[in-house]
Amino acid sequence: MKGIKYYTSVLVITIVALMVAQKFGFAFPIVTRTQTAPTELKVVGEGKVEVVPDTGYVTLGVRVDKRETAAEIQSEMNKSINSVTAAIEKLGISSKNIKTTNYSVYPEYDYNSDNRGIIGYSGSASISVKTKGTELLSKVIATGTAAGANEIQNTSFGVDDPGKYRSEARAKAIQNAKDEAEKMAKSLGIRLGKVVNIVESNDQGMVNAPYLSSAKMEGGGGGEMPDLSQGTQTITSVVTLYFEKR
Question: Are the CB atoms for 158 and 212 separated by under 8 Å?
Answer without folding.
Answer: yes
